[in-house]
């Protein structure tokens, strides 16, 4: 086998290895995104249920509830953006 053939074969092997590593990383990133999304969805369901109760009974404390709601929504926004960035 010539030097060129050996070099070419080595480069092809390196590319195969890189492809395999990327394939695994993409799968793991996808799984991480799925896991994060499911965790956020569980919390979202809880928030929606509690939001109805809070909205009905929080007329006097609207400012405090508004600030807490803003922080919570920002947390969800950050979480969903993190998942989007993973994909």
Annotate the secondary structure layout:
Elements: H1 3-57, H2 62-86
Helix pairs in contact: 1-2
Summarize the structure.
The protein is mainly alpha-helical and 87 residues long. The chain is 92% helix and 0% strand.
How does this model look, in words?
The protein starts with a helix and ends with a helix. The protein has helices at residues 3-57, 62-86. It has one domain (3-86). It is mainly α and 87 residues long. The radius of gyration is 24 Å and the shape is rod-shaped. The longest helix is centred in the middle third of the chain and has 55 residues, at 3-57. The chain contains 2 helices and no strands. It is 92% helix and 0% strand.
Keywords:
single chain; 87 residues; mainly alpha; 2 helices
Helix fraction bin = over 70%
Given as residue ranges, the uncertain stretches (5+ residues, pLDDT < 50) are: none
**What value does the Rg take, in angstroms?**
24 Å
Element order: H for helix, E for strand: HH
The domain count comes to 1
CA-based shape: rod-shaped
Give the oligomer, counting copies of the same chain as homo and different chains as hetero: single chain
Largest sheet: none
Tell me the strand percentage band. Answer: under 5%
The class by helix and strand makeup works out as mainly alpha
- Round the mean pLDDT to the nearest integer and report it: 79
N/C terminus separation:
43 Å
Topology, number of strands: 0
Number of helical segments with 4 or more residues: 2
């Amino acid at each position: 086998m010539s030097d060129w053939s050996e070099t070419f074969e080595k480069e092809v092997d390196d590319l195969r290895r890189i492809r395999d590593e990327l394939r695994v990383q993409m799968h793991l990133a996808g799984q991480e995104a799925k896991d994060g999304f499911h965790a956020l969805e569980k919390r979202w369901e809880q928030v929606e249920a509690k939001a109805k109760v809070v909205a009905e009974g929080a007329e006097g404390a609207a400012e405090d509830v508004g600030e807490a709601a803003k922080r919570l929504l920002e947390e969800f926004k950050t979480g969903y953006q993190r998942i989007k960035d993973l994909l």
